[in-house]
Structures are given as structure tokens and as C-alpha cells.
Amino acid sequence: MHSQTIELTPADQPAHLVLPLLAKLYAAPEDPSPQARQVSACLGHSDAAVRQTAMLVLARCGPAGVAPLEALLAPDRSPAERAAAAACLGCMGVAAAAAAAALGRCLEAQDDSLRANATFALGRLGPEAVPVLRPLLVSSDGKIATAALEALGRIGPSAASAAGDIRALLTHEDLLLQTAAAGCLTQVDPADPDGLQRLAAALARPEVPVRAEAARRLGELTTAAAGALPDLIHCLEDEAPAVRAAAALALVRVKAEAVEAVASLCGLLGDADPAVLVNAALALGTIGAPAAAAAASLSALQGHPDQQVAQMAAAALSHIVPKSR
After folding, report:
1. 38: which residues sit within 8 A by CB, 6+ positions away?
2. Same domain, 120 and 3
3. Could you tell me the residue range of the domain that residue 62 belongs to?
4. What is the domain-level CATH number for residue 293?
5. For the chain, what is the domain count?
6. Is residue 12, in this structure, part of any structural domain at all?
7. Which one of 15, 112, 155, 186 counts the least CB within 10 Å of its CB?
8. Is the pLDDT confidence value at 325 over 70?
């Protein structure tokens, strides 16, 4: 049983009294759903920390927490509040299926964080979200259609009923949308080789954003994109930094022990672009001991003026040459 409960109207209580009670409910191993009504009342508190903690508790309340979180998705709420509620619903997974329609409307919002969190949530809802997502694939707004593809891809084979709609986008005039559709098709229908073939072909397109997006999408496919590994390695020598960076990250997601890429990745450690350096170091660190040839260059990068580069180089080095105890 919970040692403390929220008995008074939360709006009448100071934040310093309400917040510790909510924190205990959030951290306790017991199911907090019996107090979902009281926690929901905290969503109207004047203190932002109270409201945010209440959302986190509701995300642990199962079906009892869905309706109050869904109410926060309303258009009259702030984008930050809507985005936080969408993230909490996403953490609930299939238990939040009743909020699918409201989350689908959030994909049409202009706020990028809200759209991203709603996409994440819809992808976690499973098949229940598919009927909401399919109509969005024909949106004239490429961002909305792309978000729907992202969510369907995360649902995977359970979204097979949308495969025909996804295939229709493979010939869309928007090349980035084509690329997103190819990646989604491979996730939804792994037996169809068309999506993977189109992504591999997109790596050779003349448009830099398309090549970079194709590399990113291949990385999302992880081991399913193993056949494209040689193409990704070739992209490490691409003239565009964005493509080199995307390929470096993608190839170790496709094959964590991509020993055949070590030489090319080592070559990137002299790159002038910080994003390329960060992703190359990350990739080499993921490969681990077989990337020992990169140790000297990574050691030198620990003194790089870009803090993220220096930190990633140090982290990669610790995985390649572990310190003896």
C-alpha cells in the first residue's frame, strides 16, 4: 500500500507539499492507478514541475491514465504540454491505444517536438494506430506523410495492411518522401526486397539530402539492411559531410562488428566536419577491439576544440583499448 496519498485538491496545496507525494508515487513499485483521479487533478496545478511529474505518474497508471493525458493533447494546450503528454502516452505503449486518434491529429501540428513525440507514441500503439495513420499518408504536407511513415515503420509487420498505401509513395514526386516510404516498406513487409533495393539505389542519387536520408533509413533497418553494407562503406568517401556522417552511423547499426569498415572509418578521423568525426568515433567505438588501428588518431582527437568530438573520441578509445584494472 502507498504510505501517502493526495487527499486535498492539488490546486489548493503548495508545490513543495504536492511534488514529494507525486515523486513517491512515481518511484514506488506499487501500481499508482488507484490514485489516478487525484493525480489527474494535479495537471491543473500552477507549478510546472507538479504538472510534469503528474504526467509521469499517469503514464504508470495504465488505462486509468490515458484519458487525462489525452486531454492534454487538445489544440488549446501549449505545444510543450502537448509534446510531454504525447511522450508519456508513448511510454504506455498499447495501453494508450484509445488515444490513437488524438495523437494522429498531433501529426498535423506545426511544432516539431510535438510531431516527433506523437510519431513515437503512435509507433508504440501497435495495430490500433494503423487506421489513424493510413489517411495521413496522402497528406499534401510532406512532414505529415513522413511522420505517418515513421510510425508505421515502428509498428512493423503488424502494419501490413498499409503496405499498398506505402508502395504508392515509392513514386511520389518528393524524393525524400520516396526514401522514407522505401524504408517503411522494408520494416512493414520484410519479404519485399523493393524497399531495400530502392534505398541502396538512393545512395547514388545526385541530391545530397536524398543520399543522407537513404543512409539514415538504412541504419534504422539495422541487420535487415546487411546487403547494403558495401554501399554504406562506399558512402564514407562521399563528397558531402552530411552523407559521410550518416553513413558512419548507419553502418554500425546495420552491423555492429563491421570490421570491413575500419579502414574507411579511420580515414574519416581527419575530417574537417565535427559531425563526421563524432559519428566515425562512435562507429569505431562500437566495433571495439577490432578497430585498434584507430587508437592513435582517437587519442589525438581527445584534444579537439569541439567538446563533443573530444568526448566521443575518449569514449570510443575506452571501448577499443579498455583500461586495465
Report:
1. 5, 6, 7, 10
2. yes
3. 1-91+114-127
4. 1.25.10.10
5. 2
6. yes
7. 112
8. no
